[in-house]
């Protein structure tokens, strides 16, 4: 660091007074120093995420089963073609996309309902909000277990107790409706997530406009659909993007509730099975790469509009 | 709306009371599984695993005792170690990065930010195999510190984005004044910026802690016994035989409690962390 940087105002727009070369030198040291601030985080992430990801791509092009460690060779796209022909991949992509789509949609709808209900003032609102966010905070593994045994179980589950009390047939949730079982638990966990995001949106609404609409005689419903919903659009988009990206990777409820049976074998679970039970590293890596491709597809669909929002909120 | 003022008012207040009632019913239904979990944890096993639910009973700590007998303290200890170290790593690395991306100027801020956001969106499934193989080769599988480091990387993008949103709120005049006074960069961060964004740092740390504490996938695959954390320990209940709802509920309550308390305490900042700072 030269003395120039400390004695002169180092802000880029303020250096007009100094000479052109000085200006350039100040700028350059500034930029390098700032890059230095950024570097540790970037290097750390490259080491632990980017390089492993490239290695996964490498693995996916290799014939490599841990049962036969010596029989390891370059395999080209064999792992991908066998993934397509073995009939594992498409059902898994289907399961991943369906579980994500259902859970995110339901969570947004319930989240919207609760956000609207908890936005209006009433007694004990703070307590109601606190109770509502709990399902999202609870350890996901614990949530799945609690649902599996104390809610869905055919003997001791509360849902079936309610069904019996109402003289309805008992349902073996995780075997009869595996997809619904997973979606219910995920919806339960992610409704608070959506609610929090939408609640922030509702609180950011211009109250004056709402009052004006009421005075003009627009009913509650019309005010909601014409003014509130368009205002919430950005928040819904953020919720959908973040929720989708997280649920696309979903593993915990599958491993605990259904073990991938009945059309619920998501890509993450399939990879787990292939790698850690089947010990087929090459094949599993191919599933890992497919997961990334799927995430990228979903994210780019949602991201285009959302990224603008992120940036708009974040530039000085 | 027609009619006289008083009937309108009583009509709207009746409607308000009804909405409040419906709200509470829905909230309580939604919260019920958590309530039921806590309740079952204090029941003797025979009552917890009975076909007809019991709401009134004499609470016992049998379930908690049994959970501890299964060695839960050790798993909690591992979870705490992993979550705390991961939080320290991500906060320490995120402060300078967020500072550079908000108050200082870097070329191509957008590129750096999208680098972080795309890393956040990278599925863990895409990186777990090489990490497993490398740790296995160098004998660091089932090592809690390695798990903590991976969690640190997992949380770093969120922490950077979230802190940046707090840093952007620091009034520019304050930083400018510090610079005119000739404060060096390190002093500028530690003395002037950090105290102003301390609530943001705390919130980011809390979010980071929550994610690491709750993580199941990597914990299941990268640990086996010595470094096993609480989520895979809970997951092992799936293979249980006989009646175990009371002990499971007690164990789940203990496991969930730290994060529930942390989350309740950080309620106001939660949405900001979850949306990576996009929503305040």
Instruction: State the separation between the terminal residues of chain A, measured CA to CA.
Output: 26 Å
Overall structural class of chain A, as computed from helix and strand content, comes to mainly alpha
Distance between the termini of chain B: 37 Å
CATH superfamily of chain A: MetI-like
The CATH superfamily name of the domain at 73-231 and 255-274 in chain B is: MetI-like
Question: What share of the residues of chain A lie within helices?
Answer: over 70%
Strands in their spatial order, largest beta sheet of chain A? 1-2
Biggest sheet descriptor of chain B: none
In DSSP terms, counting alpha (H) and pi (I) runs of 4 or more, how many helices of chain A?
A: 14
Our count of helices of chain B gives 13
Radius of gyration of chain A: 26 Å
Percentage of β-strand residues of chain B: under 5%
Shape of chain A: flat
What does this 3D model show about the protein?
The complex is a heterodimer of chains A (316) and B (280). Chain A is mainly α and 316 residues long. Chain A is 75% helix and 1% strand. Chain A has one domain: MetI-like (MetI-like fold), CATH 1.10.3720. The longest helix of chain A is centred in the first third of the chain and has 41 residues, at 20-60. The two termini of chain A are 26 Å apart. Mean pLDDT of chain A is 86; it is low at 1-17. Helices cover 74% and strands 0% of the residues of chain B. Chain B contains 13 helices and no strands. At the A-B interface, helix 2, helix 4, helix 5, helix 6 and helix 9 of A face helix 1, helix 4, helix 5, helix 6 and helix 7 of B.
């Amino acid at each position: 660091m030269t003395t120039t940087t400390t004695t002169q105002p180092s802000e880029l727009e303020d250096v007009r007074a100094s000479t052109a070369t000085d200006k350039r030198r100040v700028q350059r040291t500034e930029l390098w120093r700032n890059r230095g601030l950024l570097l540790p985080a970037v290097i750390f992430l490259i080491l632990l995420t980017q390089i492993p990801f490239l290695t996964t791509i490498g693995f996916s092009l290799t014939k490599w089963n841990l049962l036969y460690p010596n029989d390891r060779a370059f395999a080209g796209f064999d792992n991908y073609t066998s993934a397509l022909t073995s009939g594992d991949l498409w059902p898994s992509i289907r399961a991943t996309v369906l579980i994500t789509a259902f859970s995110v949609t339901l969570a947004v709808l319930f989240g919207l309902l609760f956000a609207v209900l908890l936005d209006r003032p009433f007694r004990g609102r703070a307590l109601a909000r606190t109770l509502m966010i709990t399902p999202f905070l609870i350890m996901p593994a614990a949530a799945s277990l609690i649902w599996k045994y104390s809610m869905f179980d055919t003997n001791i589950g509360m849902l079936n107790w309610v069904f019996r009390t109402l003289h309805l047939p008992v349902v073996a949730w995780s075997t009869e409706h595996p997809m619904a079982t997973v979606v219910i638990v995920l919806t339960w966990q992610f409704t608070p997530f959506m609610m929090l995001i939408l609640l922030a949106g509702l609180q950011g609404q211009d109250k004056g406009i709402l009052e004006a609409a009421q005075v003009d005689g627009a009913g509650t419903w019309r005010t909601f659909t014409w003014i509130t919903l368009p205002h919430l659009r950005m928040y819904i988009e953020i919720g959908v993007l973040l929720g989708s990206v997280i649920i696309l990777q979903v593993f915990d409820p599958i491993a605990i509730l259904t073990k991938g049976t009945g059309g619920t074998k998501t890509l993450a679970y399939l990879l787990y099975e292939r790698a850690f039970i089947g010990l087929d590293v090459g094949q599993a890596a191919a599933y890992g790469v497919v997961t990334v491709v799927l995430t990228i597809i979903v994210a780019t669909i949602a991201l285009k509009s959302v990224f603008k929002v992120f940036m708009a909120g974040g530039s000085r | 709306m027609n009619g006289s003022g008083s009937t309108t008012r009583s009509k709207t207040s009746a409607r308000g009371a009804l909405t409040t009632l419906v709200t509470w019913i829905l909230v309580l239904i939604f919260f019920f599984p958590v309530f039921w979990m806590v309740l079952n944890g204090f029941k003797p096993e025979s009552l917890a695993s009975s076909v007809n639910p019991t709401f009134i009973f004499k609470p016992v700590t049998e379930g908690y005792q049994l959970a501890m007998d299964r060695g839960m303290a050790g798993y909690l200890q591992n979870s705490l170690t992993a979550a705390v170290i991961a939080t320290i790593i991500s906060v320490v690395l995120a402060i300078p990065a967020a500072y550079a991306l908000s108050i200082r100027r870097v070329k191509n801020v957008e590129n750096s930010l999208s680098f972080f956001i795309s890393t956040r969106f990278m599925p863990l499934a895409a990186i777990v195999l090489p990490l497993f193989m490398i740790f296995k080769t160098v004998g660091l599988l089932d090592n809690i510190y390695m798990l903590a480091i991976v969690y640190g990387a997992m949380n770093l993008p969120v922490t950077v984005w979230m802190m940046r949103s707090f840093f952007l709120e620091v009034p520019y005049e304050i930083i400018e004044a510090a610079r005119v006074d000739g404060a060096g960069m390190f002093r500028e961060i530690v003395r002037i910026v950090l105290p102003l964004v301390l609530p943001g740092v705390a919130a980011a740390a809390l979010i980071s802690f929550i994610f690491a504490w709750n993580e199941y996938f990597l914990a299941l695959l990268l640990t086996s016994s010595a470094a096993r954390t609480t989520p895979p320990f809970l997951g092992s209940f799936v293979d249980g035989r006989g009646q175990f709802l009371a002990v499971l509920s007690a164990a789940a309550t203990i496991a969930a409690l730290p994060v529930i308390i942390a989350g309740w305490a950080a309620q106001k900042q939660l949405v900001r962390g979850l949306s990576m700072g996009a929503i305040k």
